[in-house]
Prior knowledge:
By secondary structure, this protein is an alpha/beta fold. Helices cover 44% and strands 17% of the residues. It is built from 13 helices and ten strands. The strands form two sheets. It has an eight-stranded parallel beta barrel with strand order 3-4-5-6-7-8-9-10, surrounded by seven helices. Strands 1-2 form a two-stranded antiparallel ribbon. α8 (186-195) links the parallel β8 and β9 (199-203). α7 runs parallel beside α8 (186-195), α10 runs antiparallel to α13 (276-292) and α11 (232-241) runs parallel beside α12 (256-266). The chain starts with a strand and ends in a 7-residue tail after the last helix.
Amino acid sequence: MQYRTMPGSGEKLSVLGYGCMRMPTKFGGAIDKEKALAQVRGAIDRGVNYLDTAWPYHMGNSESFLGDYVLKDGYREKVYLATKLPCMMIRKKEAIRETFKKQLKKLQTDYIDYYLLHSLDGTTWDKMLDLGIIEFMDEVKASGKVKSMGFSFHGKKADFMRICDGYDFDFAQVQFNILDEQYQAGIEGINHAAEKGMGIIVMEPLRGGALVSKMPSAVKKIYDNSGYERSAAEWALRWVWNNPNVQVVLSGMNVDEHIDENIRIASEASADSMSAEEFAVIKQVRNTYDEMMQVGCTS
Length: 299
């Protein structure tokens, strides 16, 4: 496992983070606790030290699962824990602190290493400002209950820049992959955040798996003829990790073989390591997708 340093905290985070939104489930949608526990702890044992969850994941049960099972037996001390304030649910100022207290209780911890304002866009940010979010963020950081403060983003690039400039955030979480270099925050947003000394967490590096499971035959042919023996997932992940401003790439892993592959790639792919030949392959893949997609959306 490789590690990269978060600019603000100086903490060494595994380049592969474990996203706890798509853990294995049983019939009816309940988390398969035995399987999920083995997978998450197995990844931690092999070097993954960043766990990402949120209030709504798994119908509200992801945080409780981590607190009740994964973080027991000394595993809390082995990881940097990230969760998110569900800004979309917040309607009054008091709900901010009430929700945060409930999250600490669900996770059975006294502090959150990386706390995010969840799924911001310009409108949601303005709402949270009106509800006193600045005061709350200052408060929880000063108390030590939150070590690093950030936000995840789904909105327009201009709003991303505005939010970055609106508070002394430690990091931001953005969607970034071979097709979404200019989408939402995009590469310009990533560069702007990095210039401000913020860390970058990347979500949807495989577009929710679509870059692998829904790969067109024309794209597969490009990869097959590239001269490299790599899966589509490896190509996509290596491209994201090539960016030195990216500290962590999140993967919602729930298949043993995928976890093994992701950990292997995370131990090999380094920043600024891709050749011009490799970039040419990605460019060809991107152009092929662009020609096939009639609507520029992430589905």
